[in-house]
C-alpha cells in the first residue's frame, strides 16, 4: 500500500513538475535574430559611432561618416535573406499567435526605402558635417533610421508608438543641430511642438482603442473591433479618429502641415531631404498599419476622412508652391517643402481607396513612395550642390545651371519632370496613373478629378524651374554663376549619380516599381 501511495505521489509530482516546466517554456518567446537584424545593426552602429567619437581625432572625424554609410549598407544587405517575407518573432505563445514583429513583404519594401533614404542622406552629409558635431550627428541620424526601420515591422500599438518616437526624437535634434543658428533653432522648436502634440493625440487614441478592445496587437484589435459592445462603440470610434489625427501630423497632411516649410528651411539640407522621404515613409507606413491591419471594420470612419485629407493636402501644397517667389532666400528648399506636402496628398489617395476596394490598393501608395523617394532625394542632392556656390539657394540661382554644371542641370531637370509626371520621367507618369486608377477603382471619382486638377497646377512650377535650368542667366539680368565653384565632394557626386541612374532605370522599366500595385503586400 505504501509502495502504491509512494508511486502515485511520485507520478503526481512528476506530472506537476512537467506541467510547470511546460508552462515556463511556453512563456519564453523565441527571437528570430535574422528577422530583426536590419534595425538592430543600424542601432548597434549608432552606438559604435558615438563611442568612437570619443577617441577619433578631429582630423579623422570624416571616418565616422563612412562608418555610418557602411552600417547602412550592411543593414540593406541583410534584407536579401528575408526576401520570402514570411518571418515573425516576439509572438504570444499562449492562445492566439499574434506577433509584435513581422518581416512580411510590406515591411521589407518600406525598410529598403527608409534605409536607402538614410544611406543617401549620409552621402549628402559627409561633406557638410565639418561645422557640426560629427559624433552626435551620425549617432542621431542612425538612431532615427533604426526607429524608421523598426516601424513597418511593428504589429502591436506599443511597438508602433515606440518605433515612431525613436524615429522622431533624434530628428528634432538633427533639425536644430546647427548651433547658434536662430533659424535652425526655431525650426527645431516648431517641429518638436507639432510632433509632441501629434504624439499626445495619438496616445490618447491608442488608449481609447486599448480600453475598447483589451489588446494592443493589431490583428487582435481588428478582430475585437468587429464585436465591440454598444457601450464602448463611441469610445472605439473616438480612439480610431484620434489615432488618425496623430498620424495626419506625422504625414504632414493638411491642415496639420504648418511645420513643414520652416522646418525644411531651418534644417541642414541633408536633414530636410531625410525628413521629406524617410520621415514621410515612417508616417505613412504607420498610417497604413493602423488603418488596413487594425481598423478595417471602421473603414466607414477613416475612408472618407482620408479622402478629404488627400484632396485638401494636395491642393494646399500645390497652391502654396505656386506662390513661392524665385528671388526669395531659400525659395528652392521652400518650394520642395510645399511640393512634398502636395506629394503627401497623392500618397494618401490609395490608402483612402483601400477603405472601399480592399487593401490591395496599398500597393499603389508603396509604388508611388518608391518613385518619390528616388527623385526627391535626387532633387535635394542637386540643391546641396548648388548651395555650395549659392548659400541663399534661391530658385533664381538655378538659372543657367546647364552652362556651368550641365550634368547636374540635366539630373535636376529629370527629377523635376519625374515629380511632374512628364516624359522622360516615365516612372513619375506611371506612378501618378497608378494612384489615379486606385481612386477610380474605389469609386472615388471626385477625388480623381481633384488629383487631375492638382497635377495640372503642379506642372506650372515644375516646368518653370526646369526651364530656368537651361535659360541664359544674362536674359533676365540675374547674376552670372561662377565658372568653377568649390570642388564637389565625392559622396555628393555619388548621391546624385545613384538617384539619377535609379530614376532612369525605373523610367526604362517602370514595372519594377509598379508591380507593387498589383500584389497584396500583407
Question: Which helices and strands appear, and what pairs or packs with what?
Answer:
Elements: H1 2-26, H2 37-52, H3 62-77, E1 87-91, E2 99-103, H4 105-125, H5 134-150, H6 157-175, H7 182-213, H8 218-225, H9 230-250, H10 260-266, H11 269-294, H12 299-322, H13 331-357, H14 362-387, H15 401-404, H16 406-420, H17 426-441, H18 445-469, H19 490-508, H20 511-514
Antiparallel strand pairs: 1-2
Protein architecture, described:
This protein is mainly α and 522 residues long. Helices cover 70% and strands 2% of the residues. The protein has helices at 2-26, 37-52, 62-77, 105-125, 134-150, 157-175, 182-213, 218-225, 230-250, 260-266, 269-294, 299-322, 331-357, 362-387, 401-404, 406-420, 426-441, 445-469, 490-508, 511-514, and strands at 87-91, 99-103. It has a two-stranded antiparallel ribbon. The N and C termini lie far apart (62 Å).
Short description:
The chain has 522 residues and is mainly alpha-helical. Helices cover 70% and strands 2% of the residues.
Key structural traits:
522 residues; mainly alpha; two-stranded antiparallel sheet
Integer-rounded radius of gyration: 25 Å
Principal-axis shape: globular
Order of helices and strands: HHHEEHHHHHHHHHHHHHHHHH
Helix content: over 70%
Q: Quick check: average pLDDT?
A: 86
H/I helix tally:
20
Query: Taking strands numbered 1, 2, ... along the chain, how are they ordered across the largest sheet?
Result: 1-2
Structural class: mainly alpha
* End-to-end separation: 62 Å
Q: Which spans have pLDDT < 50 for at least 5 consecutive residues?
A: 1-27, 476-484
What's the total number of strands?
2
Percent strand equals: under 5%
The profile of the biggest β sheet is:
2 strands, antiparallel
Amino acid at each position: 500500500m505504501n509502495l502504491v501511495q509512494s508511486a502515485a505521489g511520485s507520478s503526481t509530482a512528476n506530472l506537476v513538475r512537467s506541467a510547470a516546466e511546460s508552462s515556463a517554456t511556453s512563456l519564453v518567446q523565441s527571437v528570430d535574430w535574422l528577422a530583426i537584424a536590419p534595425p538592430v545593426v543600424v542601432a548597434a552602429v549608432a552606438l559604435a559611432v558615438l563611442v568612437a567619437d570619443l577617441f577619433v581625432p578631429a582630423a579623422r572625424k570624416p571616418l565616422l561618416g563612412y562608418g555610418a554609410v557602411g552600417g547602412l549598407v550592411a543593414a540593406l544587405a541583410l534584407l536579401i535573406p528575408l526576401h520570402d517575407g514570411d518571418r515573425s518573432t516576439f509572438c504570444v505563445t499562449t492562445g492566439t499567435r499574434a506577433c509584435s514583429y513581422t518581416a512580411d513583404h510590406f515591411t521589407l519594401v518600406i525598410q529598403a526605402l527608409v534605409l536607402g533614404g538614410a544611406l543617401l542622406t549620409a552621402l549628402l552629409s559627409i561633406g557638410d558635417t565639418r561645422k557640426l558635431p560629427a559624433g552626435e550627428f551620425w549617432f542621431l541620424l542612425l538612431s532615427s533610421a533604426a526607429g524608421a526601420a523598426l516601424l513597418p515591422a511593428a504589429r502591436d500599438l506599443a511597438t508602433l508608438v515606440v518605433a515612431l518616437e525613436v524615429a522622431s526624437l533624434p530628428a528634432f535634434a538633427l533639425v536644430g543641430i546647427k548651433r547658434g543658428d536662430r533659424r535652425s533653432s526655431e525650426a527645431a522648436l516648431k517641429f518638436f511642438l507639432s510632433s509632441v502634440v501629434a504624439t499626445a493625440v495619438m496616445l490618447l487614441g491608442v488608449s481609447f482603442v486599448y480600453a475598447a478592445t483589451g489588446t494592443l496587437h493589431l490583428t487582435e484589435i481588428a478582430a475585437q473591433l468587429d464585436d465591440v459592445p454598444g457601450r464602448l462603440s463611441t469610445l472605439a470610434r473616438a480612439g480610431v479618429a484620434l489615432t488618425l489625427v496623430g498620424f495626419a501630423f506625422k504625414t504632414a497632411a493638411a491642415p496639420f502641415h504648418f511645420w513643414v516649410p520652416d522646418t525644411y528651411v531651418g534644417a541642414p539640407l541633408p536633414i530636410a531631404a531625410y525628413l521629406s522621404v524617410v520621415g514621410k515613409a515612417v508616417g505613412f507606413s504607420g498610417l497604413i498599419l493602423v488603418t488596413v491591419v487594425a481598423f478595417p471594420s471602421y473603414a466607414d470612419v477613416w475612408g472618407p476622412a482620408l479622402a478629404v485629407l488627400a484632396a485638401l493636402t494636395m491642393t494646399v501644397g500645390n497652391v502654396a508652391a505656386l506662390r513661392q517667389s524665385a528671388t526669395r532666400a531659400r525659395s528652392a528648399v521652400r518650394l520642395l517643402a510645399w511640393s512634398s506636402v502636395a506629394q503627401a496628398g497623392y500618397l494618401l489617395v490609395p490608402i483612402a481607396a483601400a477603405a472601399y476596394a480592399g487593401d490591395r490598393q496599398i500597393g499603389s501608395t508603396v509604388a508611388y513612395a518608391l518613385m518619390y523617394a528616388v527623385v526627391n532625394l535626387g532633387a535635394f542632392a542637386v540643391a546641396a550642390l548648388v548651395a555650395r556656390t549659392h548659400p541663399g539657394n534661391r530658385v533664381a540661382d538655378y538659372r543657367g545651371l546647364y552652362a556651368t554644371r550641365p550634368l547636374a542641370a540635366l539630373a535636376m531637370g529629370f527629377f523635376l519632370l519625374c515629380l511632374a509626371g512628364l516624359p522622360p520621367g516615365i516612372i513619375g507618369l506611371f506612378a501618378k496613373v497608378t494612384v489615379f486608377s486606385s481612386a477610380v477603382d474605389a469609386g472615388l471619382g471626385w477625388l480623381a478629378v481633384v488629383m487631375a486638377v492638382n497635377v495640372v497646377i503642379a506642372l506650372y512650377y515644375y516646368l518653370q524651374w526646369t526651364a530656368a535650368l537651361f535659360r541664359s542667366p544674362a536674359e533676365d539680368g540675374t547674376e552670372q554663376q561662377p565658372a568653377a565653384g568649390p570642388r564637389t565632394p565625392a559622396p555628393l557626386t555619388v548621391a546624385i549619380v545613384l538617384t539619377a541612374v535609379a530614376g532612369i532605370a525605373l523610367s526604362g522599366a517602370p514595372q519594377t516599381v509598379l508591380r507593387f500595385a498589383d500584389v497584396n503586400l500583407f
